[in-house]
# Entry
Amino acid sequence: MEFLGALGQVADPAVLFATFIGTLVGIIAAAIPGFTILMAVILVFPFTFSMSPLMGLSTLMGVYVGGFSGGQVAGILLGIPGTPSSICTVFDGYPMARKGRAGEALGIGIFSSFIGGLIGVACLILFLKPMADFGLKFGPWEIFSLVLFSLTLIASLGGQSFFKGMIGGFFGLVLSLVGLDEMGSALRWTFGFEELESGVSLLPVLVGLFAMPHLMGAIESDRARRSGSAHADDAVTGNLSIPYRKVFRDLRLGWKNLLRSSFLGAFVGALPGEGGTVANFLAYDQAKRHASRTEHFGEGEPNGVIASESSNNAVAGGSLIPTLALGIPGSATMAVMLGVLMTHSITPGPALFRDEPELVYGIFATVILAHFFMLFIQTVAGNRVFLRIATVPVHLLVPTVLVMCGIGCFAINNQLFDVWLFLIFGVIGCFLEKADFPLAPVVIGLILGALCETNLRQALSTVPGPAPFFTRPISAAFLLLTVASVIFCARQTLRGRKGLRAMLSGRSEKKESHS
# Structure
């Protein structure tokens, strides 16, 4: 009955239209080099406040799905990856385009994205309920330990330095303490600002931390491209029509690679902290390892495009598994998805499947629909249109996006204070980016901070003392994994530093011997 009810909601023309528009926006945004999927999701986020939960999530899921596929347009036609998750698409897609096979490369990418995305959704449907049922066994002790483990795991996978990742996560936890204490009714760290009594708003932090550094990075990248050899003039402007027979033949010959890359992408997406970029490289590497002739990779090999595009779209379904089942966002983009649920007073986590089954089934349906919309838009709209979008001058794009960011932040509570928060966190984000601090742990720390504190205090008020954290099996297992994660990542970091020092000392010795 819940499934039929969900289908009825999804069949609402308003939900269908929202999913279609979201998918279109995702493709357009990802086609612009330097404009990431996360940026597109953040810009669309404010428009979901007045929508129903399903419609809001449908819109953002459309952006998410469309973004993973849209990055191939710039990668294949310009040789510049539209998003980080389409880097490997450039390796073979651009050489194919330069050889007059642009339509074939685009067709392979579009259908690989479509099939990989559906496989990712199948994994979501199969594994979400068992994981949610397992999560229902959690008490406050288990949830606290799980959140603690997730923070260390996300910090270790989210950047080059584990310690910087942990500092970023701790900064997010501190931000989550600002405002009215729900259990003690005390004001904390508001510094006299009434606007902070309800806590730090998620959207200004998200937009500031990610939008500003990305936009500044887009300006720098554009300058580098203009001074280097890669220009918009190098775009492939020949025949962009898709030769369907050739495309389906390539997919049929590479079906093993297609399935392997799709399942790998779904698995990587389900890991907190991982994403399309990691899945992209892993799938491409595996495709090359299993190929009979590896010398063609990098020169226009269709299997390279198949591996790259099928894996990154499969991430969309896989990443929703821990987000919906446990309420643990594996990335900043998934944190935005949780923000939509929280905006509508829906608690994400194990109880979501039990309390809101129609919403969960509706999400399944809209993710599938988004992939069909993506296929329709990219095969019917014409890639020449997206090529024109991909070459939009950055000096026109950046101010427009900044204004939209400011309007979106103001629209949350209709107060200028949130715009100032956006600007402040924009400056903080630029400094953190320059210092190589991963930004995702900050946002995820802010999202999970309240959950961490609430469950810790509930656990201690139920049974005074820390003993149950270590005597309850699931909680103890997560704490052991937390310790193991910290030790392993600390060793890896120290080992990496020693290797760098050894390399630098070796170079200095060589210079001295030559002199």
